[in-house]
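Final report, Chapter 2: Outcomes

The project's central promise was a pipeline that accepts a single protein chain and returns its three-dimensional structure in a standardized token representation, suitable for archiving and comparison. That pipeline is now operational. To close this chapter, we reproduce one record exactly as it appears in the project archive, with the input sequence first and the structure output second.
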Amino acid sequence: MNANLNAASLFVDELAACGLRHVCIAPGSRNTPLTLAFAAHPSLRVHSLLDERGAAFYALGLALATRCPVAVLCTSGSAVANFFPAVVEAHMSGVPLLVLTADRPHELRHSGANQTIDQIGFFGGYALWSVDMPLPDNAPSAIVMRNLRTTAARALATANGPRPGVVHLNFPFRKPLEPQPADAPPPTPQPGRSPHTFISRGHISPTPDDLATLLALITAHPRGAIVCGPANMGAAGDESLHDAVRSLARASGYPIFADPLSGLRNGDLHVIGAYDIMLSNGGPPFDPTLILRIGAVPTSAALNAAIAAAPADHRIQISASGVWADEEHATSWFLHTDETLLCRELARLLHEHTHPDAQWLDSWQRASRIAERTLRTALDHDWSDGAAVRTTFDAAPADARIFVGNSLTVRHADEFVPACKAQIFGSRGASGIDGNVSTALGIAAADSLRPTIAVLGDVTMLHDLNGLLTLGRESIANAQIVLLNNNGGAIFQRLPIARFDPPFTRLWVTPHDTDFAAAAQAFHLRHARATNANELRTHLQNGVQIIEVVTDAQNDLNARRAARRTVQITLDQAARMQTD
């Protein structure tokens, strides 16, 4: 019997019994036993990726889209370190990842042995649970085999727990790593069997006292606001939560200020569009006396500043995971409970008690309609990054999934896309540009029948260019990338350091002059350039894999400023007409 293959097969079979369906594997030698076990299991879909960083971000995208834990496996040494950026993002975003690392046996650790580093507890506080697994035994006792199975069950349950995140299991293996001629075959996978240990959890329901207190507060504060930040663990697709929040808004009369990654920007009358521009450019006063917050910290700096400056007597965070999301530390009540259950029950109770401030809601709805119309006209006038983002969202099918890259791109979506039927994803946990290509392709791989569009900046694309290999290796035919190429880090144009050139251009903007058409050709991908909205729509309809929108950073900045000025002037004129 090969002890390594036996242990690996038992462990993998239990993962499958407990519900694991996807594993992403980067090639290596020391992880051979686990790789063979995963490949042999009929219930698992194995994704093969060339590098560890891309594999981990691809797994993160799969987990975001499926809202289930995904495993990612690598060999020992620096391979483990390349998982770290995705581990950080998964921890900060609440995405369930099962990180499996192969290791040298104990006698080779701290010995100078090749490709051997200290992997124990490698991810520190970014892992919810870390286990250094025992060395496989040629004659394992019953308790050793039960330990393998229960550890598999506990690892998945912990990763997918009340606070989803990362679980790290480190597997030491002695040679031989491959099957030997005299070896008995490893245990046969048993698809469909019940898990050895079944682990379940309920929901944290609000107490009657919590509901009574909230009911009294909302009734006493008819001028309130609901703020929904980026959703965690794919909750952007949780329609039960969205319906509950909308029901609460209708019952309370509160407007909803919804981040593009919240999943709530779908055109509902209570959802306020273009708030980022209005909050700093002539919109109604943001002066709620009660603020209900759900989700992570919003993308919009203007919204965060408005929340901090609002004269609210009560700022209430509602969180099922218990994760704090208030950088101003102004929360007056943190309510650790299930958001859907709370909003649904509150809405039911409020229908009988509350008297909403119709003027407060109407002022925001009216201003939102004016700002949206004005913004659309302004974007149609000037072709810029913002116009390209808006065109992409408008052209996306209702069943599409859109991944928005970090840096400027997600801010353009926040400012210029008031409503979208497609499901929107992003990586706002640590807000890094690393691995965005791979994450988007992981989302696409989760459902080959749904189109996936990634909207990325040029530096973001360069940071994960080798992720494009996955399109061919995994036969992903439902993904497109809209590439906003302004030749460098245009977001830094918004910072005070932009006044200090020449160091600014070389050390912040970092122009690269990359020929992305040649890059696409190297990866055997279709490439086209879009110089206006019609061309962009046509390329999206024709399934072009990389659609490059070449823009000028300064022109983009000028177009944004002009659009915001136009919105402010229009809102001021509307306010004067209403007063007259």
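Archive annotation: The chain has three domains: 3-172, 208-362, 385-550.
This record, like all others produced under the grant, will remain available to the consortium after the project formally closes.
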